[in-house]
Amino acid sequence: MQVFLCWSGAASHRIAQALHGFLGDVIQDLKPFLSSESIRKGQRWESEIGKRLADTNYGIVCLTKDNLTAPWILFEAGALSKNIAESRVTALLAGIQPTDVLDPLSQFQQTRADRADLFKLLKDLNELLPPERRLEVDRLTRAFDSFWPSFETNFNEAISFVEAKTGLAPMRDTQDMVSELLELVREMKRDETAVSERAMAEANMRVGQVMEERHRFQVMLEHERARKADLEQEIIELRGQLKKLQNENLR
After folding, report:
1. Residue 87: inside a domain, yes or no?
2. pTM attached to this predicted model
């Protein structure tokens, strides 16, 4: 069964790499697809991504603090949701809480990065296999327990990388995000075999959403500036009143 691992950014990539090995080790009938590992040299990257998105049976979106609004995450997640049943796409939360995830990603089922929730994910994947290929629960548990320590170590290293990076990396400018989205759309138009028309529409819609968010942010910023000016004026007036009271007390 094909499992598409969606990632964006160095930390998310490390998590996807750990998952790539872990899923296949625990359930050998799973065929995880990770673009950096599964595309052979010489293959057209865009075309292969589009083909795998269309052929996949299950999608796992690896979310971290630094890729919640990454254009490529939004594009691949949108393509996954169009090609397979929504119940078969899950967002893996790495170092973040469910409340950190906003639309459209919040519409997916969410998997916490702990032992219990990840085991549940493996059980769900196992249940999607043909009956004759499924592992018995006891066998699945033993395989999970055997490979969990190695996965947990790799996963925690990836989380540490996120936390170390968060304090150093500046927040991306909204205009930069819009520019990247527009460039992605142009690349899609140059090679229509890479994505479906519906995925293209999804990407175009996201461009409009980002532009709208940028406008709302600018409006909020203007309100904040106005409020700041009002507060500064109030402080000046209060200082004047305080000075007046102090002068009266000295008389």
Report:
1. yes
2. 0.61
